[in-house]
Design goal:
single chain, alpha/beta, Rossmann fold, six-stranded parallel beta sheet, 13 helices, elongated
């Protein structure tokens, strides 16, 4: 039989009315009792009656708004958010969008009104768009942001920040220590702050190792396989010396780089080392496997959702948390 609210109350050692107040975020229960109740909810895998909660006005669903061309990233984000929603008794509303649309703010507001979500999980570039954030804040909707940076940028909302800059520094320094001095950088979409942060990490590693930064070795583009193929063809076909290594801003770009190198008969890693970023399936399914930086997207998504639910239930400030991608060295990089 499914556990009931009375089962939760018995395990937590409180009244079932106390359990109801906690689940419905009535704000009249102390933190210690709240912790006991949520511990019992998880232990029993108790699922609150979402329709009843909706009639009482309590939040029963969370929205995930995104604009990202990387399917692996989106799938991992959805998985992490959904795992936490299921564990905490929430439904998930997913809303893909075009962040560049001139009606994006109206679209987000209509989505909030239509779905009546209790809060939002926002990912780049939505989470980094000040106009969208201002509109959501004015509406009084709580949200959590996933964004690039070494720390939380402000107190606007809790966020999960990812230290892309230092991870990019570590990747570039790894290539330098192998002996590479001519390293090309293939960036991601410019509206994503992660692309700029990773570029800064690349540039700082060059500077710290007294290697000249060359503008033409930075090729802007998008976070896609096709963009990696096109830019790599260009850099390998250009007159003059070829780079001995390429740092691609994510694994999808890096996989495109590997494909283009093979088409043009450039052996990887003997004549060209390639590194990516994120440790997505692209990095492990390619051959040779790609050197990269591990970014546990599902874990990041789950943590972001947990922060949002805490803020929804407790009604007070929740501390932001950071993630620090770690270098993973694989067969795609070696000495030139």
């Amino acid at each position: 039989m499914k556990p009931t609210i009375k089962d939760v109350a018995k395990l937590a050692g409180v009244s079932f009315k106390t359990v109801s107040r906690v689940i419905n975020n009535e704000g009249t229960v102390g933190q210690d009792l709240q912790d006991k109740v949520w511990k019992a909810v998880k232990q029993l895998n108790y699922k609150p009656n979402l329709s009843a909660r909706g009639l009482r006005g309590a939040a029963s669903s969370i929205g995930f708004i995104y604009d990202n061309p990387n399917s692996n990233y989106v799938i991992d984000m959805q998985r992490g958010i959904l795992d936490e929603c299921r564990a905490q008794g929430y439904e998930l509303v997913i809303h893909p969008c075009d962040a560049k649309s001139h009606t994006i703010i109206q679209e987000v507001m209509e989505m909030i009104d239509r779905s009546r979500v209790g809060g939002l999980v926002l990912t780049p570039p939505i989470s980094e768009n000040k106009d969208i954030l201002a509109a959501i804040t004015e509406r009084g909707i709580q949200f959590v942001r996933v964004l690039s940076g070494a720390s939380a940028p402000d107190d606007l909302s809790p966020c999960v920040f990812i230290d892309d800059r230092n991870a990019a520094y570590a990747i570039t320094e790894h290539l330098i220590k192998l002996g590479h001095r001519d390293i090309a950088f293939l960036g991601g979409d410019e509206e994503h702050q992660s692309s700029g942060e990773r570029l800064e990490g690349y540039k700082q590693a060059l500077a710290d190792n007294k290697i000249e930064f060359i503008d033409k070795r930075v090729l802007p583009g998008s976070y896609s396989f096709e963009s990696g193929v096109e830019r790599t063809r260009n850099v390998l076909s250009s007159p003059g010396a070829r780079p001995t290594a390429i740092f691609a801003c994510n694994d999808e770009i890096a996989a495109g780089t590997l494909f283009a190198a093979r088409i043009q008969g450039v052996d990887v890693p003997n004549r060209l080392s390639i590194a990516g970023f994120e440790d997505s399936p692209f990095s492990r399914q390619a051959w040779p496997n790609l050197t990269t930086a591990a970014q546990p997207t599902s874990t990041i998504a789950q943590k972001a959702t947990n922060l949002l639910i805490k803020s929804l239930r407790n009604g007070r400030k929740v501390e932001s948390e950071g993630f620090y991608p770690e270098l993973i060295i694989r067969e795609s990089t070696q000495a030139p």
